[in-house]
Structures are given as C-alpha cells and as structure tokens.
Amino acid sequence: MSRSKTLYQLQQYDSGIDQAIKRIQAIESILSDNNELDFAINKQEEYKLIFAEKQKLLKSAEHIVEIQNQKITQNQNKLYSGAVTNPKDLEDLQLESSSLQKYLSVLEERQLETMLESDQAQEIYNQGSAQVDGISKNKQAESEILSAEKSSLESKILSLQSDREAFLANAEISGLPIYENLRKSSGGIAVTLMQNSSCSACGSNIPSAIEQEARSPKKLSFCPACRRILHPGSS
User: Is this structure's pTM higher than 0.90?
Assistant: First the structure.
C-alpha cells in the first residue's frame, strides 16, 4: 500500500469521527435552544395578565350595573308604594327614574364592551396557551429523535476510534507527523485526491512531474497551491 493511500485511509476514519463530532455539537446546540419556547411562554404570561385585568374590569362593570339597578329598585318602590303623595315629590321621583334608566343604559353598554374585551383577551390567552403546548410537544418529539441520533453517533465514534487504532497498529505509516500537522492547518483534510490532473480540495492544476511523483508508492507529493498530500486514488 502506498504512503499516500495509507494516510488517505487513515483520513477516512478521522473525517468520519470529525463529522460525527460536528453533528453532535449541532444536535446539542439545537437541544439547548429554547428561544422559541421561552418567547411563547413569555407571550402567554403577558396574555394571562391582560386577561386577568380585563376580568377585573368586567367584575367592576357588573358591580356598578348592579348598584344602579338597586337605585332604580329603590326609586320604583318609593314611586309606587303610595308613601309619597306630594305631586312635586312624585314628579321628582319620576324625573329621577328616567335619569337612572338612561344612565343604566350607558352602564350596560360599557359592561357589554368590557365583556367583549374580556372574551377577546381570553381567546388570545387560550391561543397563546395552545401555542406553548404545541411548541413543547414538538420540542419533546424533536428531542427524542435528536437524542437517539446523538447516541448512535457516539457509538459510531467509538467504533471508528477502535478501527482507527487497529489500523494504526497493523499498518506501516510513514509521514504521520506531516499528516497530523496538515489536518490542523488545512481544516481537517490532509490528503486530497487528484482528479483529472487537478487537486480535488482547491481545484489547482497539478504539474505532470508532481502528478507522476504522487503515483510513487514510496513518496509523498503535495499540491503546490494548498500543500495537501496528493493521492492518485488507485495506488
């Protein structure tokens, strides 16, 4: 097995591990992201406070209407009880009755408006609560799926690490320090395939002399542009 092929095969293990680690990090980021749920909960609390305030206003309006009805009842009792016989007093009671009835209409209109506002606030609060429930359920379902994927990836990493160690133990690897340094400086990709006399990593053309050298089983050749190890892919 050529030196470049040995290192390229080692890279397959390392790339598999890197990809799995990167995906696990992405999963952990998703699992820890509760912004959508937190926002929905905050809005739900906001709607709850508004609804509570509207209920207080409604109870107050109902109480005011109740008091006004009591005043009307007292007025009517005086007016028709026969206890008041003075024409002037009766006229005053009738005027008062008319005034009380008119104001009751105003108060009842206000009560109706307040009731409609309370109903609307309750509907908005119910919608907010339903949204929180929906997001929570989706988050739970997503969490179960991603947690299972994370567990599978962790097992995959252990398997790849085991295979990598076995490969290192059984293969004669020359140029390992060069490979490790290139992985650090080249985004984790130290070995690149040559395709149609070009570097598959950066796209640069490979001179024929370097291409021939890269096909040698005993030498390591490097892309003149990105400096990665070149592997012809067949040797």
Answer: no
